[in-house]
Design brief:
- The protein starts with 13 loop residues before the first strand and ends with a helix.
- It is 37% helix and 21% strand.
- The protein has a seven-stranded parallel β-sheet with strand order 8-9-7-6-12-13-14, with helices on both faces.
- The chain has two domains: 148 residues, 3-Layer(aba) Sandwich (Rossmann fold); 185 residues, Rossmann fold.
- The chain contains 13 helices and 14 strands.
- By secondary structure, it is α/β, with parallel strands linked by helices.
- Belongs to the CheB family.
- InterPro entries: CheB-like (IPR008248), CheB_C (IPR035909), CheY-like_superfamily (IPR011006), Sig_transdc_resp-reg_Me-estase (IPR000673), Sig_transdc_resp-reg_receiver (IPR001789).
Length: 356
């Protein structure tokens, strides 16, 4: 191995390229780094393919790099970069917690250092980390970086790339009898429970009052979901009547997306629509419960969740007002377990702590 990267000349500002798929993080990183008179952010990139071209054009001294990104994950990009064009890299991710397998892999692949991205109140959290971030970028700029031979990544880091984030997400679907069933589940949740997204078949004129009623009976903050709203722990988001609710991922955070597209499984909001979006964007970081209801909406989505690695639960027949939806899920093999209504909340919580 031979040292390749050279420190910028004394007196010249350190040129930084910020690589992160979240537009918010790219903006914050640019602002925080630019506040240091010795640093200039020469560009940003939303994924490694864009970054590759900007490295050629802009010739930065240091890269900041996220782990979770579309098209190519950060560790694969880092591995290719350090093999072909070694340069100082500071990892900035929700996954880079000290001692975590993904951090050790990043360092072994040639990253100089890491900063843990705040997972709650990102804007304020990043501002608190400004001095740390600036210090690590300055240190990285003077680091001697060598070409690193290709080596296999660990099983833990590969799993981390599969849409893992630092938070858990719970999803609940219901129809007939569901308004009271959901109330019972939420009333058993602690104030700091993982975020919950909920699709209940309900007319548009009733969903606001439904959310308000649930909020009164829960230690969590319960509200009707709004389009683009960030999904936060300790909060539950109800799909508005007449609109689909989907979960969308941006960086390491999830957001609510509302849609007026056609009904699915005869319903809008549809449980299948919600569950399938959770399967796509949260995968194994999710747990879901399908409660009482007529028909089979949610059965297909619950199966997709199970196939994506999520924990899945169906309410049992004895405590369901109508065992149509959960029964259809059980028939499809979508439910990992079947539980009475009173056990749904503790079972969901158990899946988030690894005690199930």
């Amino acid at each position: 191995m031979s040292a390749i990267a050279r420190a910028p000349r004394e007196g010249r500002r350190i040129r930084v390229l910020v690589i992160d798929d979240s537009a918010l993080i790219r903006q914050l990183m640019t602002e925080l780094l630019s506040a240091d008179p010795g640093i200039v952010v020469v560009g940003t990139a939303a994924d490694p393919f864009i970054a590759r071209e900007k490295i050629k054009q802009l010739r930065p001294d240091v890269l900041t790099l996220d782990v979770e990104m579309p098209r190519m994950d950060g560790l694969t990009f880092l591995q290719n970069l350090m093999r072909l064009r070694p340069m100082p890299v500071v990892m900035v991710s929700s996954l880079t917690q000290a001692g975590a397998g993904v951090t050790l892999d990043a360092l072994s692949l040639g990253a100089v250092d890491f900063v843990t991205k705040p997972s709650i109140d990102v804007a304020r959290g990043m501002a608190e980390y400004a001095s740390v971030l600036q210090q690590k970028v300055r240190a990285a700029a003077s680091a001697r970086v060598a070409r690193v031979e290709t080596r296999p990544l660990t099983v833990e880091s590969i799993s981390a790339m599969s849409y893992r984030t630092t938070d858990r997400l719970l999803a609940i679907g219901a129809s007939t009898g569901g308004t009271e069933a959901i109330r019972e589940v939420l009333s058993a949740m602690p104030a700091d429970a993982p975020a919950i997204v909920i699709a209940q078949h309900i007319p548009a004129q009733f969903s606001t009052a439904f959310a308000e009623r649930l909020d009164r009976h829960s230690r969590m903050t319960v509200m009707e979901a709004q389009d683009g709203q960030q999904i936060m722990p300790g909060h539950a988001y109800i799909a508005p009547g007449g609109r689909h609710l989907r979960v969308q991922r941006s960086g390491a955070r999830w957001h609510c997306r509302l849609g007026d597209d056609n009904p699915v499984s005869g319903h809008r909001p549809s449980v299948d629509v919600l569950f399938e979006s959770v399967a796509e964007h949260a995968g194994r970081n999710a747990s879901a419960a399908l409660l009482t209801g007529m028909g089979d909406d949610g059965a297909r989505g619950l199966l997709k969740l199970r196939e994506a690695g999520a924990a899945t639960i169906a309410q049992d027949q004895a405590t369901s007002v109508i065992w149509g939806m959960p029964g259809a899920a059980v028939a499809r093999g979508a439910a990992m377990e079947v539980a009475p209504l009173g056990e749904i909340a503790p079972r969901l919580l158990a899946t988030t702590t690894g005690t199930n």
